[in-house]
Write a sequence for this structure.
């Protein structure tokens, strides 16, 4: 694949994750200003603002691009807002890349920010039987219920154990301990995980991510613009995959409550399709990956993602974990940021936060969680309604 499809990452910024009780715009402005400072680009020079939307903050949340453009100061930039559930950030990033590669702009700000409710990320109230998200909550199929079903599938099919799941939490907690942007910075052991309340058997509270406030922002540009401002060696985005599922579905995917029939055609894996398209677009393969940031909504799902990324064969992810391969210092670190285990979900920001982490890793700026000789990073992320993403960043 031609390198002229790459775009440069000039700057990244984040607002720390937590439960701050403030307006989401405040978080986003902080992240944007940090990204601008990191890039050395003046806000007045930004030509395109691509915002990842949240639907829980009313009207301003649904026009995130313009909301942040106004908060930073109207200066005439073109604007976009993308909503794709947890993949909203990647969709906003893809929109910016398209503008840059088409020649319509040289430099863009991509931004996502959220203030989340306490407890579940649930549908708005009301009686809506034609809304699949409402239906699954009406049936009691909350997010942790899905996560638990996936976990049980791993136990039955591959022999994974509760101890394996606990080790994912322990690993990610250790990674996130030194991450100033992480919400939870605490070491855990197996006894801590086992003592936490059962949420959806076999998953306990420490196996499942929280909901959080937070923000992430990225300044991206054409490779030519990066050279012009003295950042020719900036990390580059080599691929963004946002494919939808393919009939027939192999697994139940939220908010569905049943798979397609796979009698007539072979079953397909949606999550595995996301990185497959990214590898093809970037012209690389799983063997080239140095580090991965995956959407660990639960501890067991991290193991699924490792296999979906083709970083090992199906059923072998727990073995990699037991060997220490997925730790910082291992041969294939996964979630060096601490992942959702340490951050929780700030939906529009999360996919961008993954790219921020890969940028710091490829720059060698990750401090105690630094992955040695990181050259290629990949993200994996899934949202509702057939949304998901995989982004490849290379040095």
């Amino acid at each position: 694949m031609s390198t002229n499809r790459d775009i440069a990452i000039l700057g990244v910024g984040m607002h720390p994750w937590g439960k701050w009780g403030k307006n989401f715009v405040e978080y986003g402005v902080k992240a944007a200003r940090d990204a601008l400072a990191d890039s050395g680009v003046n806000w007045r020079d930004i030509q395109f603002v691509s915002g990842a939307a949240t639907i829980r903050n009313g009207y301003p949340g649904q026009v995130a691009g313009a909301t942040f453009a106004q908060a930073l100061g109207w200066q005439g930039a073109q604007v976009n807002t993308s909503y794709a559930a947890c993949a909203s950030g990647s969709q906003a990033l893809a929109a910016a890349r398209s503008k840059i590669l088409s020649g319509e702009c040289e430099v863009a700000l991509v931004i996502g920010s959220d203030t989340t409710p306490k407890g579940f990320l649930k549908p708005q109230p009301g009686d809506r039987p034609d809304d699949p998200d409402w239906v699954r909550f009406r049936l009691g199929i909350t997010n942790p219920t899905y996560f638990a079903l996936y976990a049980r599938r791993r136990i039955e099919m591959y022999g994974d154990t509760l101890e394996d799941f606990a080790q994912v939490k322990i690993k990610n907690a250790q990674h996130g301990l030194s991450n100033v942007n992480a919400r939870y910075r605490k070491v855990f052991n197996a006894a801590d995980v086992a003592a936490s309340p059962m949420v959806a058997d076999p998953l306990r509270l420490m196996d499942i991510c929280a909901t959080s406030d937070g923000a992430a922002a990225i300044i991206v540009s054409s490779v030519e613009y990066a050279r012009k401002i003295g950042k020719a060696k900036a990390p580059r985005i080599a691929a963004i995959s946002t494919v939808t599922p393919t009939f027939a579905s192999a697994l139940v995917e939220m908010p569905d409550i049943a798979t397609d029939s796979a009698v007539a055609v072979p079953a397909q894996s949606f999550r595995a399709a996301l990185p497959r398209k990214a590898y093809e677009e970037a012209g690389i393969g799983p063997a080239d990956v140095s580090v991965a940031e995956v959407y660990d909504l639960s501890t067991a799902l991290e193991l699924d993602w490792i296999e979906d990324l083709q970083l090992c064969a199906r059923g072998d992810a727990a073995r990699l974990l037991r060997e220490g391969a997925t730790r910082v210092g291992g041969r294939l670190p996964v979630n060096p940021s601490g992942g959702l285990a340490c951050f929780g979900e700030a939906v529009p920001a999360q996919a961008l936060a993954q790219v921020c982490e890969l940028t710091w890793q490829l720059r060698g700026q990750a401090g105690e969680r630094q992955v040695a000789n990181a050259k290629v990073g990949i993200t994996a992320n899934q949202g509702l309604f057939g949304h998901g993403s995989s982004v490849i960043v290379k040095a």
Remarks:
- The mean pLDDT is 94.
